[in-house]
Specification:
- The protein has 139 residues and is an alpha+beta fold.
- 25% of the residues lie in helices and 30% in strands.
- The protein has three helices and nine strands.
- Strands 2-1-6 form a three-stranded antiparallel sheet. A three-stranded antiparallel sheet has the order 3-4-5, with no helix packed on it.
- α1 (4-13) packs parallel to α3 (120-136) and α2 (79-86) runs parallel beside α3 (120-136).
- It starts with a helix and ends with a helix.
């Protein structure tokens, strides 16, 4: 799973999220530290309103939580979502003998760039963060 720090960096760099079933998120509050939630039409559902998206907790008994605004949570994109967001820049994922994961991406000039991390999700996230930062950088 992608680290919360990298997920926050992606959000802060401009990555946007359209909540869908299967998506994971955390609520960055001390009382909920370490709790990962998953959107599911059975228990946590995205309700879209003109004023914003609310994540509704349906029938949960262990939390005294009815809903939370999308902007108050942190999306933890999955590996497949990160890979999809990399699009045509993604070349390969491999594991090095030392245990690190490496995501190779193709630069606009055709050269390859490698992004290393302890987990595959963070390697994908690092590659995507660089791509988003480049795309949103002032010209």
């Amino acid at each position: 799973m992608i680290s919360e720090g990298l997920a926050a960096a992606l959000r802060d760099a401009g990555l946007r999220w359209a909540p869908a079933a299967g998506d994971r998120f955390v609520i960055p509050q001390p009382a909920l530290s370490g709790q990962v939630f998953t959107l599911s039409e059975m228990t946590i559902e995205a309700h879209h309103y003109p004023t914003g998206t609310i994540l509704g907790f349906n029938g949960t008994t262990e939390w005294a939580l009815d809903s939370v605004a999308q902007e108050d949570v942190l999306w933890l994109p999955r590996e497949d979502q990160l890979r999809e967001l990399l699009g045509a820049t993604f070349v390969a994922l491999q594991r090095e003998p030392g245990g690190d994961w490496v995501v190779a991406t193709r630069e606009p000039d055709g050269s390859l760039r490698e992004h290393r991390a302890v987990t595959a999700a963070d390697a994908y996230g690092s590659a995507l963060l660089e791509l988003v930062q480049r795309a949103t950088a002032p010209v």
